[in-house]
Each structure stands twice: as structure tokens, then as C-alpha cells.
Specification:
It is a single chain. The protein has one domain. It is mainly alpha-helical. This is Spindle and kinetochore-associated protein 3.
Length: 118
């Protein structure tokens, strides 16, 4: 949950920054008394585009890392499930072997850990 909150807060701040820069550029183009006399609007636009490309690259790197981690976690969960199935099969096989030789559990089968009466 915190990953998505963090992502959308960064995205929101990026959108706000873009809106402010857009307003400044529009003001620079329409206002006769330009605040940016030293910098041409095209230069400001180019710098803004460069910053956006850097942020986009950073965001893509973060997304790639999160996706890689997600894939690793999914592989781990699959391995755990497979191990759980194998363990359950082994326990059933041991139970069947014990019952073959006449072992009778002391407790109810639904009682969890005390199933075999240890």
C-alpha cells in the first residue's frame, strides 16, 4: 500500500510542478513585461523537457525494480506452495505407514498439532 501511496504522491508533485512551470511559460509568452528577460522561453521549455525526461527515466527505473521484486516474491510464494504440497504429501505418507502398522492417533484429526498424540 505504501508503494502506491509513494508513487502517486510523487506523481502528484510532478503534476503540480508541471502546472506551475506551464503557468510560468504561458505568463512569459503573453506578458509584455516578461519576468524571464534573461532566459528565452524556448530555453526554459528545453530545460523543463530535460527535467521531465530525467524524472521519467528515474520513475521507469523504480517501476522496473518494483516489478523485478514482485516477480521474485511470486517465485518465492510458488516455491513455498510447492514445498507445502510436498510436505503434506510426505506427512500423509508417514501417517499411512503408521496406520499400516497399527498406530492409532490418540486425538481427533481436527485438533491440529496434537493429531498424532505426541
Amino acid at each position: 500500500m505504501s508503494v502506491t501511496v509513494n508513487f502517486f504522491s510523487k506523481l502528484r508533485s510532478l503534476a503540480i510542478t508541471l502546472e506551475k512551470e506551464t503557468e510560468q511559460l504561458e505568463h512569459a509568452f503573453t506578458n509584455d513585461e516578461q519576468e524571464f528577460e534573461d532566459e528565452s522561453p524556448m530555453r526554459v521549455l528545453h530545460e523543463l523537457r530535460s527535467e521531465i525526461m530525467v524524472l521519467k527515466g528515474d520513475l521507469q527505473n523504480v517501476i522496473d525494480k518494483k516489478h523485478s521484486r514482485s516477480q521474485d516474491l511470486m517465485a518465492f510464494i510458488r516455491a513455498c506452495r510447492k514445498l507445502q504440497e510436498r510436505t503434506a504429501s510426505d506427512i500423509k505418507q508417514i501417517k499411512d505407514t503408521f496406520e499400516t502398522y497399527g498406530y492409532k492417533p490418540l486425538c481427533n484429526e481436527n485438533s491440529g498439532n496434537k493429531k498424532w498424540g505426541y
